[in-house]
Amino acid sequence: MRSAILKTALCALLVTLIGMPAQAATLPDTFALPGGFQPEGIAIGPGPVAYFGSRGTGDIYRADLRTGKGAVFSQGPGTPSLGLKTDGRGRLFVAGGTGGNARVIDTRTGAVIRSYALATAPTFVNDVILTRDAAWFTDSAAPVLYKLPLGRKGALPAEAVRIPLTGAIQYATGTNANGIVASPDRRSLIIVQSNTGKLFEVDPATGVTTEIDLGGEVLTNGDGLLLDGRTLYAVQNRLNTVAVIKLGRDGSSGMVVDRLTDPRFDVPTTVAAFGSRLYLPNARFTTPPTPDTPYDVVAIRPGR
């Protein structure tokens, strides 16, 4: 009798699975953001939840990667929200662009937990990375990193620390330090300089920079960075390309092993991963923004 019941249950389960629509188990490869949103940054997780910042209003949009549906859950200050990163404590760290600030947002409520005034004009606080003990922000208009030292259990500091960038990097006209990640050995930071296409290693204690040897390759229009082990993905926004770089263990050298393109790219700015997919928001810098300009997010599979 028990065997018969088990067999019946298994058959019922099989029928149910066969009858399920295929799309129920498939994440959308493209999904829309609100008209006129002007997306820039992306952060994913924990789980299949993505956050997008508006460079227009600073609003934060939250979407479910399983459906592509979402809504604005945190109202912006009227200045940009650019680079984004989430931690495991229900917080979203936001780079404030021309606003010269950093914000920390509660991912449950959308409320601003704390805001930091980092700089006054000229400034362009562009991207952020979280390490074990700090949040680090780049400034594309000034040769400096901003550090938020994190205390016990991730406690936020009262103020940020300015660390001037010296050494190999030379700021020039245009967008300078942009995307930022930790090196594979976690002992240094890596930043890309958009206007020169150069990649630099940064000593987090001193701010001294050293150019990373890419064997003559350049990352023109380099924007958001994503590190997966020793594989670095560098978005080249106006080139509609993602460069794939194999880094040395300490991050001092690397080799461009691939460049990913997709017909759906329309000036993607940065990249985040979920499962085997990379997600990129299309900023559409070459399209004049209007209140109704359509924007979207595309997912690619780099292994294919």
Automatic annotation (TrEMBL):
Listed SUPFAM superfamilies: Calcium-dependent phosphotriesterase
* Swiss-Prot/TrEMBL keywords: Signal
Give start-end of the signal peptide.
Answer: 1-24
Return the protein name: Superoxide dismutase
